[in-house]
Amino acid sequence: MATDSAPATVLEQRRALRTPVPGPRSIALGARRAAAVAAGVSSTLPVYVARASGAVIEDVDGNVFVDLGSGIAVTSVGASAPEVAAAVAAQALDFTHTCFMISPYEEYVAVCEALARLTPGDHAKRSVLVNSGAEAVENAVKIARRATGREAVLVLDHAYHGRTNLTMAMTARAMPYKTGFGPFAGEVYRVPASYPLRDPEGMTGEQAARRAIDVAERQVGADQVAAIVVEPILGEGGFVVPAPGFLPTLAAWAKDKGIVLVADEVQTGFARTGAMFACDHEGVVPDLIALAKGIAGGLPLGAVTGRAELLDAVHAGGLGGTFGGNPIACAAALASIDLYERTDLVGAARAIEDRVVPRLTASLADVGAVAEIRGRGAMLALELVRPGTLEPDKAAAQRVAAACAAQGVLVLTCGTWGNVLRLLPPLVIGDELLDDALTVLEDALRSL
Ligand code: PLZ
Predict the structure, then answer these.
(1) What is the fold of 84-342?
(2) Ligand 1 pocket check: which of 267, 270, 424 to mutate, most ligand atoms within 8 Å of Cβ?
């Protein structure tokens, strides 16, 4: 596989506004969109993209935005990373698809080898490749059920696992993900998460885990449970880092009860949190890990990696899909994984945390709406409340995001109550660009 073709367009890493946001061309495209695209698909910042590179996005009106979203934690290696673009181009010229279930190819095998090497634990591992995060989570549940012969699945409050029928059932928040879309898949049971800002003061991670285990044992029974699925840091639910000890206590309980521990690292995976996987921060070794997003530098790919005896418990033909592990997506993954390792993007994520957290902590100390600045690596968040209370303030988060957008900084929100601003820059963002975006964010928060 050749990766030495011409590099993709590289944009200057600088914010620039040439028109109001959105500009006239984006407005015109918005009108076409309204007549052609389903209303159920919405966009955070309705500017239409012409090009993107590194940590900037240029729209069709020539406005250049600082990207603090990475397409929801996907383009961690940078948008249109030249190495990824070259690998994609080379693979497309070799062959675009055969279907791995029909006639296999080396790229799929090489991605599975890399995942076995990179994911937590040194046990024998196997992987299956799919197209999305939701599909990865669904397959992890299928594997856990087949391997254990049990049916129940435990999930956390505030969880997000996807939009397919099973993963909707596993996702906590009704609006916009579930409302009107039932009936949902059965045998999914929700237990409390660890949410330090909102848990009783002083509650330890172990206590929070015991609270979850108690619900599971009373309402389901440990011997009925195939899997417990956890996001090591809650993603869409608000970038909530559990209290130390929460994950290890759940892991120990799962091990003791023969329950498969599934880490949904779709959002936290691939260097994002300042470790290759978020489980690494607490030395937790999941039995299965669900991956997607950052795995392939922007190409659609997902994976389940885990204990060989679990993956291999599934009968031949029980896992797969037409496009799963598409060769172009695999080539992009191999190029991305090379970048994560060779250019130390784990270190880059830590450096982003070190640059952002002390600065915002100091500069926003007197902004009463900011209840907490939290997160790990380049997965950081600010939870907004009505000053002096813990009452979530969604409107404030939306106002800040809109003010940032108007100034050329793309900031996403999240959280069960929609009141969390999240920062997910590409890990290659330069210091100057990051500082510039933080100034815009600080100004927006100060003028609340
Ligand atoms: N698991 C932890 O974060 C995707 C979805 C945004 P897919 N999160 C962003 C939206 O509104 O659709 C996600 C995740 C975690 C699973 C998924 C699902 O990944 O690739 O979107 O299916």
Answers:
(1) Aspartate Aminotransferase; domain 2 (3.40.640)
(2) 267
